[in-house]
């Protein structure tokens, strides 16, 4: 049984700001002559679109390293490559340890690196996690959740008061989702009102029809592939892939675990979160958002649960 009292999460010191003028100047010496105010204007006008780094978080591992080893942390969906290890880390996945060890070689992973999975969850359901944590981490997980709002509220239930949720989120512009239509607040709220627990046939059809290559460097160059060619289904045309999707819908329910339900950019994610917070549909606040950097295919977000009321 989960304890009745959550308690408070430990403080995480010195989390970098999303924009730091001094860092932007050092990282981009061509801007050395600009004042702090001019640097911010430059970043907003062109630096962000160019994928310039403007903070101290150099890569995804540095982002994850912001979580102190002393904080009891839950990692969601580690598969065979957990981002965190140590005595204070526990794991939840839709697959058991045994299943992950069996699946790992098929996707080029080492089965010996599979961690012990503490909770095997039903797809899109964290209710089996019966402990509280000072922090939660997920990498490329939230875009799979059929009910985005429900997922965030389950995270809020798991976190101690004031605890952070660290997310690594694919930017659909720079991954195989490039040709997908960005998700909107109406999509997110409608899924919640319908209490969606599985992926839609539309998601399955779109991924088979529109999925492209997954090389972020090429996407940053402007090479997004051919919209009519899905490299994951070589030799197939549109009609072939529609047939494949229909067959998968009726015969292979594994797609329920693996499809993407949502397609974000940093700006659309922030817009959706701001609306959900204003609507009081979620209890998490946005503490940090580090936009997608050049040649990367993801951005990083820290959400935080509300502190305990005195």
Description:
The protein is α/β, with parallel strands linked by helices. The protein has eleven helices and seven strands. The chain has two domains: 38-172 and 263-305, Vaccinia Virus protein VP39 (Rossmann fold); 185-258, no CATH class. The protein has helices spanning 21-27, 36-47, 60-64, 97-103, 148-158, 185-193, 201-210, 216-221, 238-251, 255-258, 266-278, and strands at residues 73-76, 89-93, 119-120, 135-139, 164-170, 284-290, 298-305. It has a seven-stranded mixed β-sheet. It starts with 20 loop residues before the first helix and ends in a 5-residue tail after the last strand. The model has no long low-confidence stretch (mean pLDDT 93).
Q: Supply the CATH class of the largest domain.
A: Alpha Beta
Give the termini distance in whole angstroms.
25 Å
Number of domains: 2
- Determine the structural class based on helices, strands and strand pairing: alpha/beta
Share of residues in helices: 25-40%
Note the total helix count. Answer: 11
Report the CATH architecture of the largest domain.
Answer: 3-Layer(aba) Sandwich
Strand portion: 5-15%
Shape descriptor reads globular
The tally of strands reads 7
Strands ordered across the widest β-sheet: 3-2-1-4-5-7-6
Mean pLDDT over the full residue set: 93
Let me know the CATH homologous superfamily of the largest domain.
Vaccinia Virus protein VP39
Q: Summarize the main sheet.
A: 7 strands, mixed
User: How are helices and strands ordered from N to C?
Assistant: HHHEEHEEHEHHHHHHEE
What CATH calls the topology of the largest domain is: Rossmann fold
* Low-pLDDT ranges: none
Taking Cα atoms only, what radius of gyration do you get, to the nearest Å?
20 Å
